[in-house]
Structures
1.
Amino acid sequence: KCPNDQPDSGRDAPNTGLSYFQSEKASYEYRTFLGGTSIIEVVNAMNDPGRRRRRSGTASPQNIYVFRDYQNFHGDPEKSGARRYLYADGHVSDFEE
């Protein structure tokens, strides 16, 4: 549970007034394509020229996220905020391209 995941009256029914943790049982969403696949397999598949689509650069554990906040829970409340990501190499930061 992310401490910044607070009840939100702006969410659609039936989740109006609930935090993501309350409705989804987690404050984080994960990349489903990683399920049951090792990070090395994912990196190799993402770097395979035959499988790359609309992506530039080289995939590595430093730039493949595993989990991220459902919403922009962090940062200045007067701005749009930031969404935190947990990357495959273990570091956490805001989204990095």
Note: Residues 28 and 70 are 5 Å apart (CA to CA).
2.
Amino acid sequence: MNRNLKKLELKLTNVAKASLEELLLDYEDFLRQKRLRKWDKDDPEALVVRRRYKSYPQCWFENRDDSDELLDPYDIERADPSTAANTILCLINQAIYLLKRLVDSQAAAFVDEGGFTERLYNTRKARRGKPWNL
């Protein structure tokens, strides 16, 4: 992938992370305005949400199309407002954590690999002072 695409990929991943961080604040505001308890990351309810993905049946992720019903494995649609908001907060936090790891990985690749032009420059620079092998 060329350097400009890597740079764009890194930028767009950061935009996605920032958008989720804004959404996180909106849900926290909702809980505060409604005077509902916000779960701590180590509360039993939060731990259940954080571990829940491991129990998803594999068939949920295979052969899905637009005609399938939407998945609601956390039963958010029927949950009370406090449970629904806190569950979504847990999921947003998980997504932000994963995006942070992706950004770190993309940044490292960007620094390590560079782009085509940069690699050509480094090759030319390394060959300077060496006799040409034709």
Note: The first helix runs from residue 3 to 33.
